Amino acid sequence: MAHDESAQNCIAEKIGNEALPEQGGRFKKQIEFIMEADKLKHTLRQTILLDRSRRENSAEHSWHIALTAMVLSEYARDKTIDIFRVVKMLLIHDLVEIDAGDTYCYDDRGREDQTRREELAADRIFNILPEDQARSFRKLWDEFESRKTPESRLANALDRLQPLLHNYFTEGKTWQENDVKKNQVETRMQPVEDGSSFLWSYVKALIDDAVEKDYLSE
Amino acid sequence: MAHDESAQNCIAEKIGNEALPEQGGRFKKQIEFIMEADKLKHTLRQTILLDRSRRENSAEHSWHIALTAMVLSEYARDKTIDIFRVVKMLLIHDLVEIDAGDTYCYDDRGREDQTRREELAADRIFNILPEDQARSFRKLWDEFESRKTPESRLANALDRLQPLLHNYFTEGKTWQENDVKKNQVETRMQPVEDGSSFLWSYVKALIDDAVEKDYLSE
Fold first, then answer.
1. How far apart are CA B154 and CA B147, in angstroms?
2. Cβ separation of B1 and A51 shorter than 8 Å?
């Protein structure tokens, strides 16, 4: 890394000890985690920005879907969900890509060992934090990955919806480049159905329309 | 814009009407807002990434400080604050830059009409949303800008802290390029004191250490 990690740690520990003695080691870990997170800005996804100028990175994607949760949470299947937990999941869900990279969703070979690579990454990255926070961040990530709670179902639905919107509104550019077919997109989008019946109707119509317009082939 | 806005609106409206008749126009506005937000990924800040490879954009910056709020909220002056409101403010606080651009904090001339430019931007951008959401997003943005509530004070503290960390850990690269002096940085960082006495001690020590290491001049 280009930045001076020892200086970073030293200052964070020193100040931590002076300002709040029992917190010194804790604060040092927190600053280290925040600096580590900066690396997610280098992880490029297959998705391109709407003006087609470049690929999207996982940090700005995470921001975009957290914002989307603020706008679309009313369409969740379960109306009593904890939206803050949805947002927190979306903010941390891609941090594992700092080590594991972004695996293109239609890359079947890459996806074979994706789970293992991402779990190793989660072990390393969340454990930079103080123990209590490491545990709670890991719990959020596991919840997101398991897609069993209403909150994680909505979070996953939004994580799938956003790249579909980008593909549709860039006329299927990355679908065509990667020779992706309609049935692959439908399978990939399936989690949207678990999160929101309303958004699922929208997704199905977008896919049909994409085929009709030749953005996507059957 | 490169993407087909009319198609976007048409599909969103059609599906909205079919799936939830009274929601058609509402959903169309929500999708339009989400697509508009993509533009924030093009707004470049003066801050550089820790590996110094490029400038940071305002979308990934917003993600980074929302994540930072999840990690550092325990240091807020007021221990009973609503962290979700802090996170929401951080997710939306820079959207006005889609129209107004990022004004470098040490650019005194640019800052003269910054408030006016950003208010015009807020009027346009938040009003893409349905009326109730436009009102609540604007209220959050006004709260952030006013720095009067404990939540907005913590949000502003984190928004100031992150670029300081980047400057410090890249050995003051953008400070030097813009001939920024210690007293300017101290003035700029003042809102950190209102948000967190603990983080303020840290900020003061980082600034002193930056001067000692010649990252920043007196």
1. 9
2. yes
Q: Which residues of B touch A133 (CB under 8 A)?
A: 71
- The answer to whether residue B12 scores a pLDDT higher than 90 is no
> Phi, psi (5° rounding) for residue B57?
-100, 165
Beta-carbon separation of B34 and A71 below 8 A: yes
Q: C-alpha distances in angstroms, B115 versus B1, B101, B137, B189?
A: 26, 12, 17, 19
Give strand pairing partners of B55.
B48
Percentage of residues in chain A having pLDDT higher than 90: 81
Instruction: Report the alpha-carbon distance of residue B7 to residue B171 in Å, rounded.
Output: 48
Q: Please tell me the distance in Å from A51's CA to the nearest CA on chain B.
A: 5
Terminal Cα-to-Cα distance of chain B (whole angstroms): 45
Percent of chain A with pLDDT over 70: 89
Token code pair at residue B205 = 């020590």
Q: Which helix (H) or strand (E) holds B211?
A: helix B197-212
pLDDT bucket at B109, cuts 50 / 70 / 90 = confident
Type of residue at A57? N
Q: What is the pLDDT of residues B52-107, one digit of tens each?
A: 999 999 999 999 999 999 999 999 999 999 999 999 999 999 999 999 998 888 88
Q: Do A50 and B88 touch (CB under 8 A)?
A: no
Across the interface, of B15, B39, B70, the residue whose CB is closest to A205 is: B15
Contacts of A112 (CB under 8 A, 6+ apart): none
Cβ contact B157:B194 at 8 Å? yes
Contact A1 B70 (CB under 8 A): no
**Bridge partners, A217 (sequence order):** A181
pTM given for the model: 0.91
Closest by Cβ to A64, choosing from B38, B168, B171? B38
Q: How far is CA A27 from CA A23, A127, B18, B71, B136, in A?
A: 6, 14, 52, 10, 34
| Contact between A203 and A164 (Cβ < 8 Å) | yes
Pinpoint the alpha helices (H) of chain A.
Answer: 5-19, 24-37, 58-72, 83-92, 97-100, 108-112, 114-126, 131-146, 150-169, 173-177, 182-195, 197-212
Cα–Cα distance for residue pair A88/A86, rounded to 1 Å: 6
DSSP bridge pairs for B48: B55
The model's pLDDT over A16-27, given as tens digits with 9 standing for 90+, comes to: 555 544 556 899
> How would DSSP label each residue in A149-184?
SHHHHHHHHHHHHHHHHHHHHTTTHHHHHTT-BHHH
Q: With beta carbons less than 8 A apart as the criterion, state whether B65 and B165 touch.
A: no
